[in-house]
Write a structure and sequence with these properties.
Distance between the termini: 13 Å
Structural class: mainly alpha
Order of helices and strands: EHHHHHHHHHHHHHHE
Number of helices: 14
Strand order of the largest sheet: 1-2
Largest sheet: 2 strands, antiparallel
Radius of gyration: 22 Å
Helix content: 55-70%
Amino acid sequence: MIALQLRASPSPHWRWLSPLLALAVTAAVGALLLFLLGKPVAQGLAVFFWEPLKNLRGVAELGLKMAPLLLCALGLSLCFRANVFNIGAEGQLLAGAMTAAALALHLDGQGLPSALALALSLAAGMAGGMLWAGLTAFLRDWGRANEILVSLMLVYVAQLLLGWLVNGPLRDPAGYNFPQSKMLSDALLLPVLGGSRLHPGILFALLAAILVWLALFKTWLGFRWQVGGLAPQAAKFAGFSARASLWQVMLLSGALAGLAGACEVLGPVGQLNAAISPGYGFSAIIVAWVARLHPLGCVLASALLALFYLGGELAQLRLGLPNAISAVFQGVLLCALLACDSLIRYEIVWRSRVKGA
């Protein structure tokens, strides 16, 4: 009989092997799903895992999807390491998109230099994300509210606010009543790299990954955040302020998510619309856990989730699968990771049945 036996100490090997096993399980479940749907299994897996990477254009699209995932995941990793369970990156991203779009639309045609207008719009996006994250920090700090519920509920508030803006004050009068703002002029758009749709948002995200890594592992402030997350009582005994850590990590997380939203508006989308995010903030939770809350691991994990997004879009075009297939892959990956993580603390053993039992 196969059984799980508690290890004497957590396995450091399985801590890093678990995500690889979870990815293999996800691919196996995906193959089974394709078989049950009557689709060619080998072609389906190639569409998901190979076709988006086989040329430079695909790699550029991967970077485009990767940027908002990485920015949001870095902020969430900061929060989780500090024992602050912020799961509202989606709302903070939308808040950043709305504030960046509102300012960019106001500045459009004002005659400001393009670089200044872009910098102001990006800063507005970061401020919007910080404001939205600050609401969660305030309610947790002042009202002892649960940050999980508050940050999640604020996502839906942000979605409703976005719907009101694109159907009301920011709606394009010449947009045939579609829920969208007017297109920004070229001067208000981020430059693209190498003739592709890839914009500097990916550079912002990679730079942020390095800065977050330095902050977490090379600064006294990052040490305080992590002690507060790992041993709250020890942090309290050492005089570390839990309130200060809460505000610091939440505001940083909001700024990163807000920057992601601003880059979406000022990037190839070029406007604010009701579908500005396909759920990047929620997918970033998976990215953070797959990466083990490590900023540099988030780079690889965000590339994987971006691959799922691209694979889902290609599968829709090539195989006629619904667009939700990418969400299915993400969900399977998270479930498989949680299951495989049990191997960190438990080992699989074979026990013979006791006679007469």
